[in-house]
Amino acid sequence: MNLKAAPSIVFKCIRKSVPIGRLPNLYRESEYDQKQLSEYSSVTKEDVMRVYEKYIKAKPHVILSTLAKGQEAMIAKADNYTIDTTHYKAPDYGYAGLKYVKQKIFSTEARSRNGPNRL
Based on the structure, what is the number of domains in the chain? Predict the structure, then answer.
């Protein structure tokens, strides 16, 4: 991680989170909660079905079952997807000429020594 960029990342997160934290202060909490609850309660079955028909039905989708070990019988549906590899070309990561050499003896000399902070 680039340590010089870290403060800007932190400030971006803070800048985005502060307005969210101020919402209850803009509305008294009970009024805000009641307004939000009434908005959710006003959604009808027809609204849900209209949105489903428009944005979800007949669109490409993925069904994912997340299961605990031993619960494989609870899977939603068996796997039915295979990746089309006819036009796939594996990327060249540049590892072709590398060779792994295992270190035979651990040397305490190779450990870094205490010294001034290099940051």
Answer: 1
